[in-house]
Amino acid sequence: MIYQVYPRSFADADGDGMGDLRGITSRLDHLADLGVDALWMSPFYPSPQHDAGYDVADYRDVDPRFGTLEDFDALVAAAKARGLRVVVDLVPNHTSSDHVWFQEALTAGPGSTKRERYHFRKGLGPDGEQPPNGWQSVFGGPAWTRVPDGEWYLHLFDSSQPDLNWDLPEVRQMFIDVLRFWLDRGVDGFRVDVAHGLIKESGLPDWTEAQVPITSPGAEHRTPPMWDQDGVHDIYREWRRVLDSYEGDRMMVGEAWVSPAERMARYIRPDEMHQAFNFSYLMAPWTATDQRAAIVESIEGVAPVGAVCTWVLSNHDVVRHASRLGFEAGYSTQGGIGVGDAQPDEALGLRRARAATMLMLSLPGSAYLYQGEELGLPEHTTLPDDERQDPTWFRSKHEVRGRDGCRVPVPWEAAAPSFGFGPGSAAWLPQPADWGRFAADAERGVPGSTLSLYTEALRLRRTHQLGRGVLQWGTGEGEDLVDFRNGGIRVITNFGQVPAPLPPGEVLLASGDLAADGSLPPDTTAWIRA
Length: 530
Ligand code: GLC
What we know:
The protein is 25% helix and 12% strand. It has helices at residues 7-10, 21-26, 28-34, 69-81, 100-108, 169-184, 232-244, 261-265, 279-282, 288-302, 321-324, 346-361, 391-395, 440-443, 450-463; strands at 2-5, 38-41, 85-90, 120-121, 144-146, 152-154, 189-192, 251-254, 275-276, 310-312, 366-370, 471-473, 481-486, 489-494, 507-510, 524-529. The site of alpha-D-glucopyranose has 9 residues, from loops.
């Protein structure tokens, strides 16, 4: 069980409105009480914060906004004292444009070796005024920006995030050193950002299609030249050797938006990463058929490489599941929700989110939680547009709202200013006025609260070793039910419109109240002693 901490929004010790490492340390008991095994922290490195820290200017330090290396060491020690492991984020696809390498590349000029660390090219057209190719940025607009001397540089994300040239041994060596730097400081592993993007097809062949969330090679469409290239695997093999040279268990989990499951499995072959995020599962529609298929395909997909399956419903890049499931008809994981958009049904969203979480927590493998989901926190779906900070909002020319709505600071104390996020009322994104009802102190120990549900589900998951289990599917699940056994637990989720009868047996936990006659209402999951 790995819990994602988004440092900007978790807890703010110094009161500047931005979370920090000392804030995280002060709230570690919450994670220990919840019963997770590890925390993964999104980037806290020096950064101009054009992409909330995924634009790293120095890979071996802590941004003063978040604290110091001493604060980091104290956090690791405090986590270990509570039996929690610590995973940090590694951003190897691109640096910040403030990174010394990019600054040197700009000064050194065209043709210089300093420029080889990135992808600089001449433009097309008589004066080179057109980008070198038609590649699009994930955040919108072209993936190229021109510098004053006329050359262009590649950035698959924001223009402040130039892509590194991984063909260069110097780039590879730099990241080996970065791995060692944090391993020596005691981290247990790395979450590898944009793991499917580091290597580009040689010659940067043209590609004019829009970016889609998940890359998959189709019969007609070859793999896009910027994603899922075979060469990335050599990098992870080399990193794995570094990790294996350290004492104890160290791990890597890849953020690779690729499908189908067999493509994803390539990232977690025995000599590469340990885990990869299962985004196909995150994006599976809320129907019994789709959920069952996503589960079966995920488990079958990793089996040939002998790896562990992973499960995730929310993170800092997608609409929180308590909100996206609150739409009767289809919903989108990407893009955000704002003023003037169709709004989710909050009660429906929360009911389904709790059912989805209990289904996820019954599955074998590793599960990832995103801060606040254990409180039932919804997306901020009415964030004023003039508060938005996600580069997606700007680069899409205000067409895509972006990811700020899932990044709003966590409410800890119902009655405190900023709901206890910090000592005062400052918060880098405004919290909805009624978020006191989701505050951790309003839910802790309260029967039926989402926090109690998560805590109890994690306890049972551990007791019954669900993470290590094997699923046995029932035969009579029909159209509306997902129904299987994992060891001693029978798991049933009702996706239908009417209550479903439950088999005999003790109901250990249910994501919502059962009907008066003991049947399982729609959008509810039950764990039954088999
Ligand atoms: C990953 C991160 C996302 C970031 C992007 C660029 O997808 O999860 O937050 O914007 O990489 O680094």
